[in-house]
C-alpha cells in the first residue's frame, strides 16, 4: 500500500514537472516560413520570445514546447517572416511633415502641381506660406512648353498664388521651386553679371533675360527656405507620430535618420520616455550645425545599451547635390549640360576636419556623395583620417548614396572598410533619365554598382531616402533584385549583372543595416539572444515570381517582441 502511494506520488510529481516549460516564453510565433539571415540556420518555422529577445528558433513542434499557460501564441498561418527591416537612410521628420504639407511625389505633370497649389491657396489666408515637397520634372509624363536649363518656370504658379508665397522642395531635396511672391520676399529679382545666378554651392536658375524662373538648386534654396516660418512643437509632435505610424505599417523596426539637430533628438527622447517610440532610432547629427558638433565632441557618443531605442554616434555631412537638378559633383561635364559639373555643397576641408576630430572620439562619419567627384574626394579625406588614427580600426565610416563612382574608386570601399549606404529604389526611379545626365559609359562603369561594391568587400545597405521616395521597402527590394522600373521595364533590367540575389537584398535590409550602426550582435538576424524584431509579409517575397513582389503587403511588425502593427 505504502509502495503504491509512493509510486503514485512520483507519477504526480513527474506529470507536474512535464506539464510546462521551466522558463516559458512570453510569445511564440509558429507555422511560418521564416528567413533568419543566419547562414548557419537560414530557414525555420517558429520562434520563441522572452523579455523582448529571441529565446529559441526551430520547428513549430519544437517551439510549442516553450509555450506555458501565459504564453501568447501567434499563428503565422504560413506567412513569411524575416528579421525586422532596417531603413538605413531616410529623414524621420521629413516623412511626417510630408503628410502635413502638399505631397507632390505622385504629381505627373506641371499643370497638376499648379492645380494642387491652387487648391491649397483657396484654403489659406492671404500671406500664408504654401509649402510642399516631392515634384520631379524628369518623372512627369509630359514636360511644360517652356523649360529653362531642364526645369519649368513659375508663370503658372504666379497666376494661382499672387498673395501667398509658395516654396516647394524637389523630391531629391536638392532644389526648390518658388513663386514670384516668395522670390520678392527673398530679394531675388532680375540678375545679371559675369556669373549670373550663381551662389556659393548652388544656383538661381535664370531665363535668357536674367529673370529668375523660380527654381533654386542646392544651397540657393536657403535664400527662400530661411523665410518659411519655423515649425511649432505641437506640429513637430504630430509629424513624428505620423512618421512612426508610417514606418511600422511598412514593416520597419529600425531607422537611420540621415541628419537631424538637437530638437529632433530631444523630441525622439521624449517619445521614448513616454513609451511612444515604436521604431528603434539611429540618429546622425547634422553637419550643417558646426556648433552642435562641437557640443557632441565634448560629451561623446550616446550609445543606448539598455533598450537600444535611441543612439546618437554618427555625423552626417552633405557634400554634393543630386543628379536630377544636375547638382551631383562630377569629374567630367554633365552629358546634357556641357560646361557644368554640379556643386560641392560643403568645403572638402570640413570633411577632413570632421573626420579627423570624430574618429578618435568614437563618432562615425556618414557623407552624402552622389557624383563621382564627391565620392572620390570623400574617400581621399577618409583615407587620410584613417592614416592619422591607425588605432581606430572599427570606424565603419559611410558614404550615403554612393550613386555614381569612378571605376578606380570602387575597390577602395572594400579596401578601406567604407560602407556604401545605398537606396536601390533610386535605380528604379532615376535610371531611365540618369543616362541623359551621365551618358552610357559612365552609367555602365560606375552607376548603381551594387555587385561591384560587394565584390570589393564593401557592405552595401539598403533604404529609400524617404521622403525623396516612399519609405515602403517592398519597391526597393524589387529594384534590388530586378533593376527594373516599377512598371517592370526593361525586360531584363538595367545593367543586369549588378542585380542582387534575394538573399543579398534581404541582408542589405537587415543584418547589413545593423552592421552599419554597430548593432549586428543585437539585431539584424533571427538568432537566439538577439532582439525579437520581425517583419511578417502576406506572401513569400523570397520565392514569388518577380512580378508578384510589388503586390506584397506587410501583415505584421514586431519590435522587441511587441506587435506594433497588424494589418
TrEMBL record:
<dbReference type="InterPro" id="IPR033932">
    <property type="entry name" value="YtcJ-like"/>
</dbReference>
<feature type="domain" description="Amidohydrolase 3">
    <location>
        <begin position="72"/>
        <end position="565"/>
    </location>
</feature>
<dbReference type="InterPro" id="IPR011059">
    <property type="entry name" value="Metal-dep_hydrolase_composite"/>
</dbReference>
<dbReference type="InterPro" id="IPR032466">
    <property type="entry name" value="Metal_Hydrolase"/>
</dbReference>
<dbReference type="Pfam" id="PF07969">
    <property type="entry name" value="Amidohydro_3"/>
</dbReference>
<protein>
    <recommendedName>
        <fullName>Amidohydrolase 3 domain-containing protein</fullName>
    </recommendedName>
</protein>
<dbReference type="InterPro" id="IPR013108">
    <property type="entry name" value="Amidohydro_3"/>
</dbReference>
<dbReference type="GO" id="GO:0016810">
    <property type="term" value="F:hydrolase activity, acting on carbon-nitrogen (but not peptide) bonds"/>
</dbReference>
Amino acid at each position: 500500500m505504502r509502495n503504491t502511494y509512493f509510486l503514485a506520488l512520483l507519477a504526480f510529481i513527474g506529470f507536474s514537472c512535464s506539464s510546462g516549460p521551466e522558463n516559458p516564453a512570453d510569445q511564440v510565433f509558429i507555422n511560418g516560413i521564416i528567413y533568419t539571415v543566419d547562414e548557419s540556420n537560414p530557414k525555420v518555422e517558429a520562434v520563441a520570445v522572452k523579455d523582448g529577445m529571441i529565446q529559441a528558433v526551430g520547428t513549430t513542434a519544437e517551439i510549442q514546447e516553450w509555450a506555458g499557460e501565459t504564453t501568447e501564441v501567434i499563428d503565422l498561418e504560413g506567412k513569411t517572416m524575416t528579421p525586422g527591416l532596417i531603413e538605413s537612410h531616410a529623414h524621420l521628420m521629413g516623412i511626417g511633415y510630408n503628410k502635413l504639407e502638399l505631397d507632390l511625389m505622385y504629381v505627373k505633370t506641371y499643370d497638376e502641381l499648379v492645380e494642387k497649389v491652387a487648391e491649397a491657396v483657396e484654403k489659406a489666408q492671404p500671406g500664408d506660406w504654401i509649402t510642399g515637397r516631392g515634384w520631379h520634372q524628369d518623372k512627369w509624363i509630359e514636360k511644360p512648353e517652356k523649360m529653362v536649363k531642364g526645369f519649368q518656370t513659375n508663370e503658372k504658379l504666379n497666376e494661382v498664388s499672387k498673395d501667398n508665397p509658395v516654396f516647394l522642395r524637389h523630391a531629391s531635396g536638392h532644389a526648390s521651386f518658388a513663386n514670384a511672391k516668395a522670390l520678392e520676399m527673398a530679394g531675388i529679382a532680375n540678375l545679371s553679371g559675369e556669373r549670373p545666378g550663381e551662389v556659393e554651392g548652388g544656383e538661381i536658375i535664370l531665363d535668357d533675360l536674367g529673370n529668375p524662373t523660380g527654381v533654386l538648386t542646392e544651397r540657393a534654396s536657403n535664400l527662400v527656405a530661411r523665410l518659411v516660418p519655423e515649425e511649432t512643437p505641437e506640429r513637430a509632435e504630430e509629424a513624428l507620430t505620423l512618421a512612426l505610424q508610417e514606418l511600422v505599417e511598412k514593416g520597419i523596426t529600425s531607422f537611420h535618420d540621415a541628419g537631424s539637430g538637437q530638437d529632433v533628438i530631444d523630441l525622439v527622447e521624449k517619445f521614448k520616455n513616454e513609451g511612444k517610440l515604436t521604431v528603434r532610432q539611429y540618429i546622425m547629427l547634422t553637419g550643417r550645425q558646426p556648433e552642435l558638433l562641437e557640443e557632441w565632441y565634448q560629451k561623446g557618443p550616446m550609445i543606448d545599451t539598455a533598450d537600444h531605442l535611441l543612439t546618437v554616434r554618427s555625423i552626417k555631412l552633405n557634400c554634393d547635390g543630386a543628379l536630377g537638378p544636375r547638382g551631383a559633383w562630377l569629374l567630367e561635364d554633365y552629358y546634357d549640360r556641357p560646361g557644368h559639373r554640379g556643386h560641392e555643397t560643403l568645403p572638402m576641408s570640413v570633411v577632413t576636419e570632421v573626420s579627423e576630430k570624430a574618429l578618435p572620439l568614437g563618432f562615425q562619419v556618414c557623407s552624402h556623395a552622389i557624383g563621382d567627384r564627391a565620392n572620390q574626394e570623400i574617400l581621399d579625406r577618409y583615407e587620410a583620417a584613417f592614416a592619422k588614427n591607425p588605432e581606430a580600426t572599427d570606424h565603419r565610416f559611410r558614404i550615403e548614396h554612393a550613386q555614381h563612382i569612378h571605376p578606380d574608386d570602387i575597390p577602395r570601399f572594400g579596401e578601406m572598410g567604407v560602407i556604401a549606404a545605398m537606396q536601390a529604389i533610386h535605380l528604379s526611379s532615376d535610371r531611365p533619365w540618369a543616362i541623359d545626365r551621365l551618358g552610357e559609359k559612365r552609367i555602365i562603369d560606375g552607376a548603381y554598382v551594387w555587385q561591384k561594391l560587394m565584390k570589393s568587400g564593401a557592405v552595401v545597405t539598403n533604404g529609400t531616402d524617404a521622403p525623396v521616395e516612399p519609405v515602403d521597402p517592398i519597391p526597393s527590394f524589387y529594384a534590388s533584385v530586378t533593376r527594373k522600373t516599377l512598371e517592370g521595364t526593361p525586360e531584363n533590367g538595367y545593367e543586369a549583372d549588378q542585380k542582387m540575389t534575394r538573399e543579398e537584398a534581404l541582408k542589405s535590409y537587415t543584418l547589413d543595416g545593423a552592421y552599419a550602426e554597430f548593432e549586428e550582435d543585437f539585431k539584424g538576424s533571427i538568432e537566439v539572444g538577439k532582439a525579437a524584431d520581425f517583419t511578417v509579409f502576406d506572401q513569400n517575397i523570397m520565392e514569388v515570381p518577380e512580378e508578384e513582389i510589388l503586390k506584397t503587403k506587410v501583415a505584421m511588425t514586431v519590435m522587441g517582441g511587441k506587435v506594433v502593427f497588424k494589418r
